Amino acid sequence: MARIDEPRLKAELKAGKPSRVYFLFGEEKYLVKMYTDKVISLALGGGADEMNFMKFTGNPRSDELSDYVDSLPFFSEYKCVLINDLEPDGMDNAELNAYIKIIEDIPETTVLVISERNVDIDSKKPKAKAKKLMAAAEKAGTVCELCYMSAAQVAAMAEKRAARAGCTLSRENGAYLAEMCGRSLTAVSSEVDKLCAYKAGGEITRGDIAKLTPKPVETSVYTLAAELFAGHKESAFRILNDLFTQQIEPIIILASLSGHFTDLYRAKLGQISKKSYNDTAAAFRYPPNRAFLMKKAYGSVTRLTEEYLGGCVGILYETNRRLNSSKADKRTLIEEALTEISALPK
Asked: pLDDT, tens digit, for every residue of 25-67?
């Protein structure tokens, strides 16, 4: 069929006739997840249907995938098969060709959704295997790259989210928040929820946003850390390079990295001790209006070990010592720290 943008995808789904194949990817992971859920809901008639739904993560074997794709739906018009975070470059050529064959021959009664929620694909220069898989999906169904929205669009969504929580957020302040969060809907949603909890009703002011929302360097550091956790070393270094390009002082970058990883390490200790995030925040003497940092950290460390996070903190604190006492190039010291962290076992 075609490669389309977000407005066309929205219109197609509203029309009510699903494609046989969807390949959803892009920088705006919030939209990737949202439209994945919308496709599944459309295919299954809007309700939970365990008989006609199968979910995989990673790269399921092609023969196993084929069994589910080719079987008929049970008392339903469609069955839906979801693959989260398929990694085409992790396939050998035989598996890749088998996947392409499955996509080319997919039955009219099956909706296959490939949802790249945590896998980054360069739309302009995709790697060879990803390019072949996307080309097959484009012929059989729909390929959609979900990019960051404009500040105005993100502001409108932030305004509605705040209203649902009983708060008022002006369009102007919503745009300010959007830019603070790099127009990431995931980040904006999290920040709106935090601001609404802080205000407990009433108007969210520009001062509230400036006080509680992480500055761009902090937002970048959160994303950088997530990329390291996911094993995306190249992406993490691109973010670091962007910070240096913005002429952010190395000591500020390192301080943000150290603070974030310290929050994560404390959160892990709290989880191990079976404490709530509020109890952990109190134990480490976080001010009440900063307890949200611990809540956010709790959601990021479930699959990370205490040893790994402790190792990260140790590397960063040693880097801080060297940065303050050595004549070595400060950028090089930080790059070496990230290289060491990326080599730690998780």
From this structure: 988 888 999 999 999 999 998 776 778 999 999 999 999 999 9
- Residue 54, both tokens: 């199968």
**Exposed e or buried b per residue across 135-172, where buried means at least 16 C-beta atoms within 10 angstroms of its C-beta:** bbbbebbbbbbbebbebeebbbbbbebbeebebebeee
| 31, 144 contact by CB (below 8 A) | no
Task: Tell me the C-alpha distance between 257 and 313, whole Å.
Answer: 9
Write down the H helix ranges in 171-287.
Answer: 171-180, 185-199, 206-212, 216-229, 233-245, 250-272, 277-283
Identify the sign of the CA torsion 240, 241, 247, 249.
positive
| pLDDT tens-digit map of 232-246 | 899 899 889 888 887
pLDDT digits (tens, 9 = 90+) for 114-124: 999 888 887 87
Query: Which residues 6+ apart lie within 8 Å of 98 measured at CB?
Result: 62, 63, 66
Q: What is the DSSP string of 283-294?
A: HTT--GGGHHHH
User: Helix (H, G, I), strand (E, B), or coil: what is residue 184?
Assistant: coil
Listing DSSP states for 11-72 in one string gives: HHHHHT---SEEEEE-S-HHHHHHHHHHHHHHHTTTS--GGGEEEEES---HHHHHHHHHSP
d(CA 10, CA 300): 30
Which two three-digit tokens encode residue 163? Answer: 């209203």
pTM value? 0.62
Alpha-carbon gap, residue 222 to 30, rounded angstroms: 16
Torsion angle (degrees, nearest 10) of CA 179, 182, 183, 185: -130
